[in-house]
Amino acid sequence: MQPLAYRMRPQRIEDIVGQQHLVGQGQIINRMVKAKMLSSMILYGPPGTGKTSIASAIAGSTKYAFRMLNAATDGKKDLQIVAEEAKMSGTVVLLLDEIHRLDKTKQDFLLPLLESGAIILIGATTENPYININPAIRSRTQIFEVHPLTPDDIDTALTRALTDKKNGLGDQQVTLADSARHHLTTATNGDLRSALNALELAVRSTDPDNKGVVQISLGVIEACLQRKAVSADKDGDAHYDVISALQKSVRGSDVNAALHYMSRLIAAGDLPIICRRLLVIAYEDIGMANLQAAEHTVAAVTAAQQLGLPEARIPLADAVIELCLSPKSNSGMSAVDAALADVNAGHSGDVPLHLKDAHYKGAASLGRGVEYKYPHDFPNDWVKQQYLPNGLVNAVYYQPKQNGRFETALGEQYTKLMAANGHALTPENDSKKS
């Protein structure tokens, strides 16, 4: 029997789950299908994100024949069969999986068929096509990136599978516990194939109760998916406890504790949560003390999202270790929060006349920008003048810390500038108004 993920493949472009930047109304692949002006393309992204589904839906929506081959295991003879079919019946949509492994012999055979339009090639790969695919193929295809599906996307697909009586599991009475559904949508890291296959295994291997209902619990899904929901409980409290513990461990510079809590999130497959939390930590807790650490964290998160789990754990571990051992400063967050507190309390005031927009005719007659001093016309590109509104002229929001060389240096410059403007930088004048 064909797997559930195979049976539930969409036959129309409208039925594709996720990838709306490509197949949504008005987007590029949707437009190609609507106009029946298909061009060969390469879809690249993580496994189970819909590359095959997009190809299947394109063929189904356009009524073209659809064939699937693998560049690594199928030979030139298999390509010749597809080419003959194209000659006999017209255009064929060919999904060529692992296209990055296409050798020169098969490539040379395909190129003229792509040029003539006899075969619409849809290459699928998890590798970066700009690095791993021959330029001759790249130049004849459009390259589209597919992204991991969101939990909501996977939830939609699970609902379809549970209600579809023809291709899905709708012929059985199945009750999927909320915690089990949540685990399927989050622990699969956007891989719909894994979620559907785990769901089918759970349903087929669970005996119905005395009312004929197949009850699927979190424990059953954990067993079928082979991933424990270690960071979540029924109410979600433990999940947020682990996230909180991760940030507090980094803030407290405890490398081992931070690695432990991140590993619990990794084991639960919570890659998006980890990435978001590390970005928050980099700017909230390290911030001005070491902006390079923030840059490194952004790079690590980008790499992790491209790699997916389990490989994503490697750049994430590097980031956590650096963030733990880095000097800490929350001065940036504290400064903007202090400024926001003034704004929210109604302490704003009018923008000084010399700072107002003066590009339009008649601005000078209104006094706009007339007395503005252009700093680059003065020594050291600086001149004393008022920037804050009159009611906030003595407000001080930023209080630099000295926990890292970078912020220490910025703090020295800040102190000089404040003194030149007639303000002594002391904690007592924080947010004082004249």
TrEMBL record:
> GO molecular-function annotation terms?
ATP binding; ATP hydrolysis activity; DNA binding; enzyme activator activity; single-stranded DNA helicase activity
Biological process GO annotation list?
Answer: DNA synthesis involved in DNA repair; DNA-templated DNA replication
Position of the signal peptide: none
The cross-references to InterPro entries, in alphabetical order and at most eight, read: AAA+_ATPase (IPR003593), AAA_assoc_2 (IPR032423), AAA_ATPase_RarA/MGS1/WRNIP1 (IPR051314), ATPase_AAA_core (IPR003959), DNA_pol3_clamp-load_cplx_C (IPR008921), MgsA_C (IPR021886), P-loop_NTPase (IPR027417)
Query: Which SMART domains does the annotation name?
Result: AAA (SM00382)
Q: Name one Pfam family in it.
A: AAA
Keywords for the protein's UniProt record, in alphabetical order: ATP-binding, Nucleotide-binding
Domain (AAA+ ATPase) ranges: 37-149
Q: Can you tell me which family this protein belongs to?
A: Belongs to the AAA ATPase family. RarA/MGS1/WRNIP1 subfamily.
Q: What is the protein name stated in its UniProt record?
A: Replication-associated recombination protein A
- This chain's source organism reads Furfurilactobacillus siliginis
